C-alpha cells in the first residue's frame, strides 16, 4: 500500500468502538447523543426522502453544496460573523466536519509546509496533515493548576512556546474551540495572540468550531473570523451532526474567503463531488427554522447548551465525589477526569508498552463495564505524558444513563 499511509494506521475510534461492540459497556466513549434530534429536523428529512412531487430531492445536487443549504448557512453565519457571506463562493458543504478538515488541509498544504496543531487535538488533524505531505508541529496547552477540581480555562498556551513554533514554513494552525477533549473555550485575547502570529507569518487559521453552540455560563464562543484582519486568513468548519444532534448524518461545512476555499473545493469536487441531497435539504430547513426561532426558548441552537450545562454539572459532581478530579469544561460535550489516584490503587494490568490511559480505559471497559476514551490519543508521542493522566467521558447522554454509569 502507498507509503503515505504508513505510520498513520492506528485510530483510537476503530480500536475502542471494536472494544465496545465486544464488551458492551455503558458507552461514554465515542461522542454522540443518545436522544432524538429536534422534531423539525427529523421531519424535514422524512419529507425530503419521501417526496414524490419533488423527486429531485433524492438525486444529485450541486457539488459545492445544495443551494438551499448554502443559502441557509450563509444566512446563519453572516449574522454571527457580521459580514455578508457569499453562499456560492464562500461556503462548501462536505461529508461531515471530517471532510471539511481534510479538503481544507489538502487544498492548502504543500509538501514541506508546516502546520501547527495545539494539543490536545481532535486526532484526525495529524494524519490529514501528513497525507497532504505537511509536517505537524505540536504546541501543548499547559495546565496552570493540576490539583483538585480545575477548569478547562486553566489550560493555556505559553506565548513564547507558541511564537517559537511559527516560522516562514508555517502554512496553517489548526485551532479547535470549544475544544475536544478538554472543553476549553478560547478567549478573545488568546485568539488575538494566535491571529497576530498568523498575520506575522502569513499563515491560515483553520478553525474547527463544531461545538460552536455549546458553551456554558460565563463563556462566549469567539470566532477567529470576526477578529480584525482575520476573515481573509481563516477557514471555519462546522458540523450538522453536532449542531442538530444527528452525528450519523455526516454533513459539515467550511466557510471563508473564496481564495482560501478554492483548493478545498477542488479536492472535494474530485473526491466526494457532492453530498447527500435529502440530508442537505433537511439541514437547510433545520437552519431556516432555527433562524425563525432564534432568541426564543425553542431555539435548539441556544437551548441545547442549557440542557448540556445541567448534565455537565451533574457529571462534575459525580466524578468529584468518586475522587476522579474532573477538569470542568467551559464548552463542548466531553469532560476529562484525573485517573492518577485510581491507577495507583488498582492493578490495571494490560500491555506495559501501552500508555497508562489506554490500559486504564481497557480495564474499566472490561472490569467495570464503563467506557471512556484515552486522551493521550489527542497528543503527539512527545507530549502524551500530559494526556495519560486522564480519561475522557462524553456527557451528551440522557440523565438517568449518566447516573447509572457512575454508581
Ligand atoms: N472536529 C471535532 C473537534 C470533532 O469532535 C468531530 C467529531 N467527530 C469532528 C471534527 C468531525 O465531525 P463530523 O462528525 O461532522 O465529521
Ligand atoms: N467527535 C466524536 C468524538 O470525539 C466522534 C469521533 C469519531 O467517531 N471519529 O468522540
UniProtKB/TrEMBL annotation:
GO CC terms, sorted: mitochondrion
Assigned protein family: Belongs to the class-I pyridoxal-phosphate-dependent aminotransferase family.
Pathway: Amino-acid degradation; L-kynurenine degradation; kynurenate from L-kynurenine: step 1/2
Entries under InterPro entries matching the protein: Aminotransferase_I/II_large, Kynurenine-oxoglutarate_AT, PyrdxlP-dep_Trfase, PyrdxlP-dep_Trfase_major, PyrdxlP-dep_Trfase_small
One GO MF term: cysteine-S-conjugate beta-lyase activity
Pfam families: Aminotran_1_2
CDD domains: AAT_like (cd00609)
Source species of the chain: Portunus trituberculatus
Assembly description: Homodimer.
Protein name per UniProt: Kynurenine--oxoglutarate transaminase 3
Gene3D superfamilies named in the record: Aspartate Aminotransferase, domain 1, Type I PLP-dependent aspartate aminotransferase-like (Major domain)
Signal peptide (from-to): none
GO biological process, one term: L-kynurenine catabolic process
UniProt catalytic activity: an S-substituted L-cysteine + H2O = a thiol + pyruvate + NH4(+)
UniProt superkingdom: Eukaryota
Keyword Transport listed: no
Amino acid at each position: 500500500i502507498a507509503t503515505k499511509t504508513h505510520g498513520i494506521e492506528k485510530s483510537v475510534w476503530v480500536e475502542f468502538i471494536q472494544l465496545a461492540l465486544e464488551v458492551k459497556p455503558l458507552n461514554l466513549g465515542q461522542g454522540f447523543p443518545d436522544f432524538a434530534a429536534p422534531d423539525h429536523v427529523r421531519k424535514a428529512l422524512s419529507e425530503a426522502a419521501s417526496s414524490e412531487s419533488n423527486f429531485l430531492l433524492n438525486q444529485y445536487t450541486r457539488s459545492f453544496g445544495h443551494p438551499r443549504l448554502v443559502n441557509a448557512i450563509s444566512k446563519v453565519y453572516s449574522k454571527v460573523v457580521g459580514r455578508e457571506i457569499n453562499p456560492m463562493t464562500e461556503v462548501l458543504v462536505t461529508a461531515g466536519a471530517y471532510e471539511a478538515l481534510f479538503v481544507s488541509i489538502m487544498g492548502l498544504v504543500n509538501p514541506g509546509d508546516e502546520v501547527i496543531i495545539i494539543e490536545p487535538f481532535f486526532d484526525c488533524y495529524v494524519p490529514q496533515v501528513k497525507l497532504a505531505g505537511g509536517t505537524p508541529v505540536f504546541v501543548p496547552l499547559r495546565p496552570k493548576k493540576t490539583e483538585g477540581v480545575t477548569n478547562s480555562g486553566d489550560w493555556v498556551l505559553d506565548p513564547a512556546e507558541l511564537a517559537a513554533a511559527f516560522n516562514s514554513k508555517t502554512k496553517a494552525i489548526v485551532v479547535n474551540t470549544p475544544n475536544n477533549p478538554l472543553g476549553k473555550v478560547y478567549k478573545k485575547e488568546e485568539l488575538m495572540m494566535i491571529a497576530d502570529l498568523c498575520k506575522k507569518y502569513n499563515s491560515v487559521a483553520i478553525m474547527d468550531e463544531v461545538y460552536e453552540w455549546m458553551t456554558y455560563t460565563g463563556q462566549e464562543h469567539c470566532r477567529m473570523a470576526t477578529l480584525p484582519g482575520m476573515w481573509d486568513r481563516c477557514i471555519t468548519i462546522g458540523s450538522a451532526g453536532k449542531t442538530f444532534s444527528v452525528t450519523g448524518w455526516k454533513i459539515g461545512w467550511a466557510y471563508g474567503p473564496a481564495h482560501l476555499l478554492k483548493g478545498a473545493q477542488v479536492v472535494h469536487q474530485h473526491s466526494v463531488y457532492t453530498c447527500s441531497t435529502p440530508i442537505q435539504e433537511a439541514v437547510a430547513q433545520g437552519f431556516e427554522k432555527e433562524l425563525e426561532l432564534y432568541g426564543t426558548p425553542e431555539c435548539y441552537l441556544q437551548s441545547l447548551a442549557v440542557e448540556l450545562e445541567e448534565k455537565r454539572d451533574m457529571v462534575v459532581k459525580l466524578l468529584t465525589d468518586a475522587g476522579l478530579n474532573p477538569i470542568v469544561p467551559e464548552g463542548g460535550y466531553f469532560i476529562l477526569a484525573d485517573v492518577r489516584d485510581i491507577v495507583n490503587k488498582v492493578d490495571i494490568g494490560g500491555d506495559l508498552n501501552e500508555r497508562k490511559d489506554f490500559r486504564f480505559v481497557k480495564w474499566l471497559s472490561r472490569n467495570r463495564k464503563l467506557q471512556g476514551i484515552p486522551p493521550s490519543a489527542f497528543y503527539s508521542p512527545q507530549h502524551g505524558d500530559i494526556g495519560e493522566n486522564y480519561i475522557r467521558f462524553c456527557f451528551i447522554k440522557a440523565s438517568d444513563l449518566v447516573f447509572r454509569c457512575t454508581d
